[in-house]
Amino acid sequence: MICLTQYNYIKDILNIKDVNVYFNENCLEISEYKGVNTKIFHGYLSYIPTHCDRCGHVNNGHEDIIAWGWKKNCKVKVTKVCGYNAILLLDKKRFKCNHCGKTFTARTNFVDFHKQISNDTKLNITLDLIHKGTEKDIARNNNVSTNTVNRILHNISEDKLVKRQGHLPKIIGIDEFKGPKDTISKMAFIIVDEENKNIFDLLNSRKTKDIKNYFKRYSKRQRDKVKFITMDLYKPYYKLMKNLFRNAIIVPDRFHIVLQIRNALDSTRIINLTLTILN
Ligand SMILES: [Zn+2]
């Protein structure tokens, strides 16, 4: 058997907190995986289940649940180790319940059930996304497909990710802009800290629903502290901002006023021109 220090050391490298994951001697090999030199770790997941995963019957001993072989080599993509792509091949213990007659596999919090991407890798991808890498770069850095990155990106909007420990700027400027190709609605959304003159955040959608979900992550108390919002006079946002920030005064920003006036003048000219022709 592997000595305790070494075994903890490997768990430490892979950042595995689950006490039920174990490593054997010679558990590491470096070999080619999909054409890339990869560190492949072999481990196993084993414990005595407290109950049956299928029917919920409490396990009091062999008359309830028995060991039922292994589910071998379950592949888990873990975060890179010293620049190498890394994979964990995990043998998961299987059990059979004598009450319902069904079998089930050991579970770990290290990777979600039926998933191949470790939760740590998912966290890394989330952090990369916050730092605005392209989906392609992030996928390569984390040894996953762009589809995986995309899936995680879409889940972020439902997360509780907030900036500056949940504090919002006192003066917020909002606007939409033409986003990169991977944005949901071609146009993206920018939130500016007008007081400090820097970008507070960028959203990959300008849809009212997404903007609402974004700001709702901040507490009502924080939203009530926002004093001014500068924005385009685009109506759907006006109503939304009014609802989200009860105490804020909405200030049309000057650049947009100029544009608005010019558009108004242009359309008046067109109307006048049309009227002249008709007359
Ligand atoms: Zn059962």
Structure description:
This protein has 8 helices and 10 strands. It has helices at residues 4-13, 119-130, 135-141, 146-156, 208-216, 220-224, 235-244, 254-278; strands at 21-33, 36-45, 65-81, 84-97, 103-105, 171-178, 187-193, 198-203, 228-231, 249-252. The chain has 279 residues and is an alpha/beta fold. The protein folds into 3 domains: 4-116, no CATH class; 124-156, no CATH class; 164-262, no CATH class. Helix 2 (119-130) crosses helix 4 and helix 3 packs across helix 4. The strands form 2 sheets. Strands 1, 2, 3, 4 and 5 form a 5-stranded mixed beta sheet that branches. It has a 5-stranded mixed beta sheet with strand order 8-7-6-9-10. The longest helix is centred in the C-terminal third of the chain and has 25 residues, at 254-278. Zinc ion is lined by residues 52, 54-55, 57, 97, 99-100, 102.
